[in-house]
Amino acid sequence: MRLLRALAFLLIAPLVLGASEPKLVPDVSQREIEIRYSFTGAELLLFGAILYPGGRVPTDRVDVAVVVKGPVQPILVREKQKVAGIWMNVESERFRSAPSFYAVASSRPVSELVDERFAAIYELGLQNLQLSPGAGATPEERRRFEAGLIELQQRHQLYKEDPNGVEITDGVLYRARINIPARVQVGNYTAETFLIRDGRVIAAAVREIRIEKLGFERFVAEAADRWSLLYGVVAVAISLFLGWAASAIFRRG
Question: DSSP per residue over 105-127, as a string?
Answer without folding.
Answer: EESS-HHHHS-HHHHHHTT-SGG
